Amino acid sequence: MGYILAIAGQTLTEARRNRVFYSVFLFGLVVVLNSVIFTEVTVTTVDRVLKDTGLAAINLFALALTVFTGVGIVNREIDRKSIYTILAKPISRFGYILGKYLGLLAIIVTTSTMMFVGLLVVMKGYKAPIHPGIFLGFLGILLEVMVLGAVAVLCSSFTTSFVSAFICVAIYVCGHMSTEFLRVVRKSTPVRRVAGEFLYYVLPNLDRFNFKYQATYDLMISERALVTVVVFGLAYVAATLLAAVLVFSRRDFR
Amino acid sequence: MSDLAIELQNLEKQFTLNLGVRRRRALDRLSLTVHRGEIYGFLGPNGAGKTTSIKILTSLLRQDAGEARVFGADPALESTRRMLGFLPESPVFYDHLTGREFLRLCGRLCGMETSLIRKRSGELLERVGLAQAGDLHVRRYSKGMNQRLGIAQAILHDPELVILDEPMSGLDPMGRADIRDLIVELRRAGKTIFFSTHIIPDVEVICDRIGLVNHGRMVAEGGVHALLDAGQSKTTEVLVTGLPGSFTVASGQETTAASGQRLFLVESEDQLTQLLGRVMAEQAKIVSVTPRRESLEDLVVRMLDQDRRERAA
Question: Cα distance from B311 to chain A (closest Cα, Å)?
Answer without folding.
Answer: 26
